Amino acid sequence: MSVQSGVKVSCGLLMYRWRGGALEVFLAHPGGPYFRNKDDGAWTIPKGEGNAGEDGLACAKREFFEETGLSPGPGAFLALGEVRQRGGKRVHAWAFEGEWDGTPVKANEFEIEWPPRSGKRAAFPEVDRAEFFSLEHARSKLNPAQLPFLDRLAEALARQPSGSAP
Predict the structure, then answer these.
(1) Residues β-bridged to residue 17
(2) pLDDT, tens digit (0-9, with 9 covering 90-100), for 56-92
(3) Which of 14, 88, 115, 157 is the most buried (most CB within 10 A)?
(4) Is residue 164 part of a domain?
(5) What angle do CA 30, 63, 112 make, to 5 degrees?
(6) For residue 28, is it within any domain?
């Protein structure tokens, strides 16, 4: 999959780990004033828009790093397909097994006019925090359009022989 010119497409990575035999997923909370007081349904997989002609997985890896400061490494990546968000944006995702030590994420910043119509510009991090959630807890936190990624990940991992990589 490569990013197409003129089409809003984001690519992202869903990092997962096993804790006590239970699957956990790593989600990011969007930064900025519009998401400051939003929690349930506002979290997302670390993702971002690609450049025309860019390989989707390469875009997802770059965006994961830009939004978290974490390198996804060279491990195996499991394609989770595509979803379409409410605004029409298409999101492609891949999953990988990884770990995070809980240090604060280091995200790129974006700039917007804030407060609105003030003529002033302010910078905010693309992601203000991240966390591992149990699969069940992640269902309440994640943007509803991205919920199929959780189901696809769980189904794919259930089909794998014990101890094998995707």
Answers:
(1) 24
(2) 999 999 999 999 999 998 889 999 999 999 888 999 9
(3) 14
(4) no
(5) 45
(6) yes
DSSP letters, 24-50, are EEEEEEE-STTTTT--TTTBB-SEEEP
Model pLDDT, residue 50: 87
Q: How far is CA 60 from the centre of its chain?
A: 9
How far apart are alpha carbons 78 and 128 in whole angstroms? 26
Domain enclosing residue 35, as ranges: 9-159
Query: What would the mean pLDDT of 107-112 be, rounded to a whole number?
Result: 94
How many alpha carbons lie under 13 Å from residue 108 in its C-beta half-sphere? 11
**Model-level pTM?**
0.90
Q: Does a structural domain hold residue 107?
A: yes
Report phi then psi at 67, rounded to 5. Answer: -90, -15
Cα–chain-centroid distance for residue 133? 13
